[in-house]
Specification:
The chain is α/β, with parallel strands linked by helices. The protein has a single domain, classed as Rossmann fold. It contains four helices and eleven strands; from the N terminus they run βαββαβαβββββββα. Strands 2-1-3-4-11-10-9-6-7 form a nine-stranded mixed sheet, sandwiched between helices. Strands 5-8 form a two-stranded antiparallel sheet. Helix 2 packs across helix 3. The longest helix is centred in the C-terminal third of the chain and has 13 residues. The relative contact order is 0.19.
């Protein structure tokens, strides 16, 4: 199995690569300008970064690829925008610990408890979830902490599961690996 991490200039993209590598997955960190036809992976993780304007071909990947996709922070926003959702400024900015309520415990959140503490940035967030998506998690400061396409294996998550401060981060990536194996 091979998972590519789309490098969107975010500070945690290398941690995603390391997490997957440490979990035994063949993974590669690739530039967000990589041509679509060069992506021959079983799944992709669209990493965080400073802005959608600097996300290269990430929107094209979301629209065109028929493989599992996991969007983290900016990747979550890219997925929402690609499918017609709305992004806006969060009411709470900066990185901080957030308690997230898990609403659906199958797929990406298989084996999770009802609530977890995570490390997240809410400078920007998904304000309106796109049609064809279901809500998977929320918090007191963000109504769309995680979402999933109802038919495709496409997931968006506001927080950073790859950082030490986020609970169940390794489990989330293991669950994504299982989704990629299907």
């Amino acid at each position: 199995m091979k998972i590519f991490i789309i490098y969107n200039l975010g500070q945690y993209n290398h941690l995603i690569h390391r997490m997957l590598r440490d979990l035994g997955v063949e993974s590669r960190l690739i530039e967000n300008t990589t041509p679509l036809e060069e992506i021959d992976a079983d799944g992709i993780v669209i990493g965080g970064g400073p802005s959608i304007e600097k996300s290269g071909n990430s929107m094209e990947y979301v629209k065109a690829l028929e493989i599992p996709i996991l969007g983290i922070c900016l990747g979550h926003h890219i997925i929402a925008r690609a499918f017609g959702g709305e992004i806006g400024r969060g009411s709470v900015g900066g990185y901080a610990e957030v308690e997230v309520e898990i609403l659906k415990k199958e797929d990406i959140f298989d084996g999770f408890p009802d609530k977890i503490k995570v490390w997240a940035s809410h400078m920007d967030e998904v304000r309106v979830m796109p049609e064809g998506f279901e809500l998977l998690a929320k918090s007191d400061i963000c109504s769309v902490e995680a979402m999933k396409h109802v038919k495709k294996p496409v997931y968006g998550i506001q927080w950073h599961p790859e950082v030490y401060h986020s609970q169940y981060g390794e489990e989330l990536y293991r669950n994504f690996m299982e989704i990629c194996r299907k």
